[in-house]
Design goal:
The complex is a heterodimer of chains A (about 350) and B (about 400).
Chain A (H helix, E strand, L loop, with lengths): L1 E5 L4 H12 L3 E8 L17 H14 L3 E5 L1 H17 L6 H20 L4 E3 L4 E6 L2 E6 L16 H5 L1 E2 L7 H10 L21 H9 L4 E5 L4 E5 L26 E6 L4 E5 L1 H4 E12 L7 E7 L6 E10 L2 E11 L6 E6 L2 E12 L1
Parallel strand pairs in A: 1-2, 1-4, 2-3, 4-7, 8-11
Antiparallel strand pairs in A: 5-6, 8-9, 10-11, 12-15, 12-17, 13-14, 13-16, 14-15, 16-17
Helix pairs in contact in A: 1-2, 1-6, 3-4
Chain B lengths: L2 E2 L10 H11 L10 H21 L6 E4 L2 H19 L5 E5 L4 H13 L3 E5 L9 H9 L5 E5 L13 H10 L4 E4 L11 H4 L3 E5 L10 E5 L25 H16 L1 H22 L4 E3 L11 E5 L5 H10 L2 E2 L6 E2 L2 E2 L3 H5 L4 H5 L1 E5 L6 H21 L3
Parallel strand pairs in B: 1-11, 3-4, 3-5, 5-6, 6-7
Antiparallel strand pairs in B: 2-8, 7-8, 9-10, 10-14, 12-13
The chains are: A alpha/beta (about 350), B alpha/beta (about 400).
């Protein structure tokens, strides 16, 4: 097959490309330039898409002896991922830009272009497994639970999965690093990337403050009493405890958490940990990684990239809506987050949280 | 076997240049040392200088060796600006066209940002050509305030040749020094320094079959330039640094060879190039030739064409996969291809500029190269069109 290996400049995608090449495929490396203003050097483990990253990707491709190109997806990324990220926060939701990027960029814009140019598949360094099951291709959790990235791939549909390759799904990160070193890839010791790639210093609140400006407003408790002042409602995340700067300690002396954010009234609502517990959610924007279900199914729901999956019952309530009852309460779930549903290790699909119930 | 259609990026070394260079690689000697080894190196350098001067109609003292085109352009643009401004602080205006190479454009904008230069852009026509009367008009606005003008001899992306002698004649009337980047012109066109009327001229080794990393600036004997590199003052006190004797020898051999065989080679390349254009057009009828439209005009080996509806990057990748090597002719900004500033300056839309490719032929090009491209280009354009503009 002709395979396009998306190479970030990190160790995972380099080893993924190497494995696909070793399997006998004709591999071409592509680095995605996603930033409008690229920095020369990367800053530790944060961020990506620096010139140093594209250099690292190119070095890896050179060592593997595969052609290498840079694709400029900065405008698409800005429109589909960054603008959406900001708009979601502005609407009081908490988006996950990595899922969005996978859905709109890596396995859409890139995959579409690759296929039009004659490639059969796109390979990435994600830790997840593709299994050919009786009803077609299935997306499963990676063998290494610590590195499993099936959550951020839960937005891929059957067609996208049919043209994807995740060569690292059966391995641990340690093994992949060791293999990179053995192959002489100079990125073997490069630190892992963390956080949101377009916020290199990891400070989402400061990023939003810079992008959206700050307007102070009230912090209220669940009874509606004003207990403090905030400096921009979108700078808060549901479940957040730190940085609330509530002047008066709560009567019971217990910590307060952000329960709700309402950008329309510019209000942040706080409450106790118990009030934060969520036992159900309404999901929209359904994405199916395999056959759709109707009616009710018992499953597990994972609500964060690095969160535990909790037992749940999902009920299809419409063509693009689902109700999920969580059998264990989850703390601090926010609208905008993705609920990825699993049947064992298999990813059923995902929904975007529209509302939560307590 | 790769089909190399990117000679304007760099061209294989000529055997004479390889011989001249390798003959010196194992020999010790700093051309500035006074002992026998130094004298031997010095002799090679000076004979090389004379060889180059002879080939280009210059005097040996006018040949300033540098590390290549970028350094020569920097020395000419900054050096002339500083010297002229220092002699008369009113001289701040710099006249240039936007079709220049980045090695000229970027020093110019640096001078604008940091040294008080006032940049004035000379208009170009659809082929990218500067009208000499436009230069006259620009100078005449206030001749006393012009520091210098710079117009390349022939464009590296589209091959358009500038009326250098006419431009230099006008500049001369007003006592304004004219620099020309002749990196693509030497060995391809009749470049005669003495009759050109230029004050400074850039050229380099690796575009004419010499080694990479060596070039020269021809600098008139009465033209003053402030150095960019300060140090031992090896080259007429205007450029410092120990000369790379083997590279200088290889460079001189390449200049001599390429100038000697220029006419025969130009005829051959023009024919091949015109055939290439005709056959690409056969396969892709809506292709647009950028630059001089007339067959036989422009630099002999360059064909720049826009493929409507295609991304140049896609075309390049698909051709590369078939072993055909060409260029989008665009500058890389942080590794990301930008639409060519030359094509934009010529009035092309951003879309067509992004969908343009440069094919450049050279001394090793054959009809088989053109055949391979003619065979591949149709299907490649079809695929790239399907992928569309992203």
């Amino acid at each position: 097959m002709r395979v396009l290996a998306a190479m970030s400049g990190g160790v995972d995608s380099a080893v993924a490309a190497a494995r696909v090449r070793d399997a006998g495929h004709e591999v071409t490396g592509v680095h995605l330039a996603l930033s409008r203003n690229r920095q020369a050097l990367r800053d530790g483990a944060r961020g990506c898409c620096t010139i140093e990253d594209s250099h690292d990707a190119r070095r890896a491709a050179d060592m593997l002896g595969i052609p290498f190109y840079i694709w400029d997806m900065a405008e698409r990324f800005h429109e589909d991922v960054i603008d959406d990220f900001v708009a979601e926060y502005q609407a009081g939701r908490t988006p996950n830009p990595c899922l969005r990027c996978n859905e709109k960029i890596k396995f859409a814009a890139v995959l579409d272009k690759a296929r039009a140019l004659g490639f059969d598949a796109v390979a990435t360094g994600h830790y997840a497994r593709l299994v050919d099951g009786p009803e077609g291709r299935e997306l499963h959790r990676a063998a290494d639970p610590a590195k499993d990235q099936s959550y951020v791939l839960g937005v891929l549909d059957v067609e996208q999965l049919a043209h994807s390759m995740f060569p690292l799904g059966d391995d641990t990160k340690t093994a992949v690093r060791a293999e990179a070193a053995e192959r002489g890839l100079y990125v073997a010791k490069k630190p892992d990337s963390h956080d949101v790639c377009f916020i290199p210093d990891g400070d989402t609140k400061a990023y939003l403050a810079k992008t959206l400006g700050s307007e102070s407003g009230p912090i209220v408790d669940s009874a509606g009493r004003i207990v403090g002042e905030h400096d921009g409602a979108w700078g808060y995340t549901i479940g957040q405890r730190r940085g609330l700067r509530i002047g008066h300690p709560a009567g019971d002396g217990r910590p307060r958490y952000v329960l709700d954010i309402s950008p329309v009234t510019n209000t942040v609502t706080v409450g106790t940990a118990e009030e934060l517990d969520v036992t159900g959610l309404s999901g929209i924007k359904l994405r199916w990684c395999g056959p759709e279900f109707s009616g009710r199914v018992e499953c597990h729901a994972q609500l964060r990239a690095h969160g535990e999956a909790v037992p749940a019952t999902a009920e299809r309530t419409g063509p693009d809506s689902v109700e999920v009852m969580l059998h264990e309460a989850v703390r601090g779930l926010a609208p905008g987050q993705a609920a990825v549903l699993y049947d064992g290790t298999r990813v059923i699909g995902s929904a975007t949280v529209a509302a939560t119930s307590r | 076997m790769a089909v190399y259609l990117d000679h304007a990026a760099t061209t294989p070394m000529l055997p004479a240049a390889v011989d001249a260079m390798t003959a010196r690689l194992g020999v010790t000697g700093n051309a500035n040392s006074l002992h026998a080894a130094g004298r031997a190196a010095r002799r090679v350098v000076e004979e090389s200088r004379e060889q180059i001067a002879e080939a280009l109609g210059a005097r040996p003292s006018e040949v300033v060796f540098t590390s290549g085109g970028t350094e020569s352009d920097n020395l000419a643009v900054k050096g002339l600006y500083w010297a002229r401004r220092d002699a008369d602080p009113r001289r701040r205006r710099v006249l240039a066209a936007k079709i220049e190479h980045h090695a000229v454009l970027d020093p110019l904008s640096w001078l604008g940002d940091h040294e008080g230069a006032e940049l004035e852009w000379l208009p170009v026509d659809r082929a990218g050509r500067v009208d000499p009367e436009a230069l006259r008009a620009a100078i005449e606005k206030d001749p006393d305030t012009v520091a210098l003008a710079t117009v390349m001899w022939a464009n590296n992306e589209v091959g358009t040749v500038q009326p250098i002698r006419a431009l230099a004649g006008i500049a001369h009337e007003y006592g304004v020094p004219l620099h020309s980047d002749a990196v693509q012109a030497v060995g391809a066109l009749d470049v005669d320094w003495a009759s050109s009327g230029l004050s400074a001229m850039t050229f380099t080794g690796h575009k004419i079959g010499g080694p990479i990393g060596v070039g020269a600036l021809l600098l008139g004997r009465k033209t003053e330039a402030v150095p960019v590199l300060h140090g031992g003052g090896q080259e007429r006190d205007v450029r410092s640094g120990t000369l790379d004797t083997p590279a200088v020898a290889g460079f001189a051999a390449a200049v001599a060879e390429s100038v000697k065989h220029r006419e025969a080679k130009a005829e051959l390349l023009t024919e091949l190039r015109d055939d290439l254009v005709a056959r690409v057009r056969e396969a892709v009828p809506d292709v647009i030739v950028n630059g001089d439209r007339g067959l036989g005009s422009g630099l002999p080996g360059i064909a720049n064409m826009a493929f409507p509806g295609c991304e140049g990057d896609s075309l390049l990748m698909l051709l590369d996969a078939r072993g055909i090597e060409c260029s989008t002719g665009s500058a890389c900004s942080a590794g990301v291809a930008q639409p060519s500033h030359v094509l934009l300056a010529m009035g092309l839309s951003g879309e067509l500029a992004r969908g343009s490719l440069r094919f450049s032929l050279g001394h090793t090009s054959t009809k088989a190269d053109v055949d391979a491209l003619a065979e591949a280009i149709g299907p490649v354009v079809g695929r790239a069109r399907a992928a569309g503009l992203s």
